[in-house]
Amino acid sequence: MQRPPKACTKRYFIIAPSEIHMLRFILEPYEGIGLVTTLDAALGMVELSIAPGCEEEVVQILGAEEENLQMRPVWQEHSGKPFTSEESWVSMSFNS
Questions:
Q1: In contact, 10 and 86? CB cutoff 8 Å
Q2: Which is higher by pLDDT, 4 or 22?
């Protein structure tokens, strides 16, 4: 019997509002890997829902674009605590 997949990993970011479309464009070719939801277009707040088991792949895909997209993590769903300004979303563990 197959177990149901665990829930998506969710991460929240502030990115340059003009780059929200680029974030979607980067992830779109990788069907099923993740979903970008715009929470506040004017602020550039997005939710990134990452499919179970795809966390490291998303880090690799978006890691090189972090600076171009001006991605800043704002919330850690698993701990319920805000990130500190020194933390990079690429360096954090998705499996915490």
A1: no
A2: 22
